[in-house]
């Protein structure tokens, strides 16, 4: 009887075994969720808000529960625990997405309450802003949100709609005045009179340098694809430019442009000077050339030879094959290079402030000079948001084009 029972057990006659239960428990845990839960717990342990007695005073970290009204703090803590339970378990992507979105909105609401909790009534000198705990919590739930969106496999248009919804929620927080007590908003109230002008300058620097790179880089990329000899010269030269530190390259533009503007006064009348947006735009243009040129050449290389032969057999000239067959098929790869350039230039345009180029870097530069971290954030956060938005939109366009060519 025992041997028969053992045989039935070995052949799986009995439905539940310890190995099966163990496998079930492993399948029920999300590894990324466990990591992000640990990060979230660390964020709840670290200071949630920074309190400064003045604009540039020494910051004092305030724990999560101390930074919020007592009842609200404990209620928020309970909600975060519920969100963690959903994240650690291998739940449906839509449920994980809902938990992450709810947690991020809750963080936006909570951080807006910290000034009223920590600043004594009638005292305008102290400053309160987000601390390491807030940023760590935001990072954790943003990663979970991104993971859920990837698992949902949203179509390109849906990704753009999700971005617009996120921007709308962010704008609603700004316009509602809920964040007005935070130190970064006080910096905006004091130093933000030229914020629209600097935003426009930042965008113009990124887009104008990209446009110049496309005008020059597309023909160079075609030449590189057609001539291996030129490819062996042009691409290494552009690679060398990429190795020059950004601030050094910006500075290298000052001397020659100063000489040219003095030697040829009409250049100065056109706005070309040793400092200002001109050297910044030229430096960004030089950085943008490599991705455009290399992706153009790679995109043309990826066009199937059979397609080109078929076009040749139809009697198309070399120009017709290039414009009507090769470039359209290579366009998704070329657009990937455009995406790299735009995101790169949005970030690098911040350094333009160090040579008088304007943009969001003005606030970063002034904040570093005055040791005012919130003024630095006033320039850094819009730059990150702009680069992130550009990446999502261009990724959606690239995926749409790839779907059409598939």
TrEMBL record:
Q: Which UniProt keywords apply?
A: Membrane, Transmembrane, Transmembrane helix, Transport
Please list every transmembrane segment annotated in the UniProt record, as residue ranges: 32-48, 68-88, 95-114, 134-154, 161-179, 199-223, 244-264, 284-308, 329-355, 375-398
Domain annotation ABC transmembrane type-1: ranges? 199-394
Q: Does the keyword Transmembrane helix apply?
A: yes
Top-level taxon in the UniProt lineage: Bacteria
Q: Which SUPFAM superfamilies match?
A: MetI-like (SSF161098)
What Pfam families does the record tag this protein with? BPD_transp_1
Task: Work out whether the entry's keyword set contains Nucleotidyltransferase.
Answer: no
| Topology of the protein relative to the lipid bilayer | Multi-pass membrane protein
Query: Chief subcellular site?
Result: membrane
Task: Give the UniProt subcellular location, in the record's own words.
Answer: Cell membrane
Q: Its family?
A: Belongs to the binding-protein-dependent transport system permease family.
Q: What is this protein identified as? A: ABC transporter permease
Organism lineage string: Bacteria, Pseudomonadati, Pseudomonadota, Alphaproteobacteria, Hyphomicrobiales
């Amino acid at each position: 009887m025992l041997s028969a029972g053992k045989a039935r057990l070995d052949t799986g006659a009995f439905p539940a075994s310890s190995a099966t239960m163990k496998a079930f428990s492993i399948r029920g845990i999300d590894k990324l969720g466990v990591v992000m839960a640990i990060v979230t717990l660390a964020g709840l342990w670290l200071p949630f808000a920074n309190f400064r007695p003045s604009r540039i005073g020494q910051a004092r970290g305030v724990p999560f529960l101390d930074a919020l009204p007592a009842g609200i703090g404990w209620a928020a803590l309970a909600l975060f625990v519920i969100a963690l339970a959903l994240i650690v378990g291998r739940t449906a992507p839509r449920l994980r997405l809902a938990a992450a979105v709810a947690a991020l909105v809750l963080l936006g609401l909570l951080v807006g309450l910290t000034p009223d909790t920590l600043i004594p009534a009638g005292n305008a000198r102290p400053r309160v802003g987000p601390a390491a705990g807030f940023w760590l919590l935001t990072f954790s739930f943003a990663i979970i949100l991104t993971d859920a969106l990837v698992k949902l496999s949203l179509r390109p248009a849906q990704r753009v709609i999700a971005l617009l919804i996120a921007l709308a929620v962010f704008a609603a927080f700004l316009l509602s005045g809920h964040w007005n007590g935070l130190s970064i908003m006080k910096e905006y109230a004091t130093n933000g009179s030229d914020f629209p002008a600097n935003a426009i300058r930042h965008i113009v620097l990124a887009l104008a340098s990209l446009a110049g790179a496309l005008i020059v880089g597309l023909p160079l990329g075609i030449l590189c694809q057609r001539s291996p000899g030129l490819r062996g010269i042009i691409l290494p030269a552009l690679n060398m430019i990429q190795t020059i530190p950004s601030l050094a390259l910006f500075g290298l533009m000052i001397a020659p442009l100063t000489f040219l503007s003095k030697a040829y006064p009409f250049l100065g009348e056109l706005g070309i000077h040793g400092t200002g947006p001109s050297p910044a735009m030229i430096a960004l243009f030089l950085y943008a050339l490599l991705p455009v040129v290399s992706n153009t050449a790679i995109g043309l290389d990826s066009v199937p030879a059979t397609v080109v032969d078929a076009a040749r057999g139809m009697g198309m000239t070399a120009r017709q094959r290039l414009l009507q067959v090769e470039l359209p098929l290579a366009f998704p790869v070329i657009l990937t290079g455009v995406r790299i350039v735009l995101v790169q230039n949005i970030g690098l345009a911040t350094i333009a402030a160090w040579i008088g180029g304007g943009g969001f870097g003005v606030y970063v530069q002034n904040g570093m000079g005055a040791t005012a971290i919130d003024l630095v954030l006033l320039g850094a956060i819009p730059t990150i948001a702009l680069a992130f938005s550009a990446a999502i939109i261009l990724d959606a366009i690239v995926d749409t084009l790839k779907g059409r060519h598939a």
